[in-house]
Amino acid sequence: MSKDLSLKIVLALSVAGMLFSGYLSYGELIRQACPLAGACTVVGGVPACVYGFIMYLAVFVITILGLKSKK
């Protein structure tokens, strides 16, 4: 498997993760309701899905940088 193909797969997974965690974050922060019927967790006063969104966003940015590098 080539480097570019691997990075594109990781990019697709990070987009899917951002969409899912973004949906959960929106539900908890904006609508003030848990989209998963009470299965939501709060860590340090912030919903756990927000941490997931930040992590997937970081993976997305790093993957984009990897795809743009020409080594």
Shape: elongated
In the predicted model, the low-confidence regions spanning at least 5 consecutive residues are none
Total individual domains: 1
What is the CA-CA span between the terminal residues?
17 Å
Mean pLDDT rating: 92
Describe what this molecule looks like in 3D.
There is one protein chain. The protein is mainly alpha-helical and 71 residues long. The protein has one domain (3-68). It is 68% helix and 6% strand. It contains 2 helices and 2 strands. The chain has helices spanning 3-29, 48-68; strands at 42-43, 46-47. It has a two-stranded antiparallel ribbon with strand order 1-2. A hairpin with a 2-residue loop joins strand 1 and strand 2. Helix 1 runs antiparallel to helix 2 (48-68). The radius of gyration is 15 Å and the shape is elongated. The protein starts with a helix and ends with a helix.
Q: What's a quick, concise take on this entry?
A:
It contains two helices and two strands, in the order H-E-E-H. By secondary structure, the chain is mainly alpha-helical. Strands 1-2 form a two-stranded antiparallel ribbon.
Q: What is the secondary structure topology, with strand pairs?
A:
Blueprint: H1 3-29, E1 42-43, E2 46-47, H2 48-68
Antiparallel strand pairs: 1-2
Helix pairs in contact: 1-2
Record keyword descriptors for this entry.
single chain; 71 residues
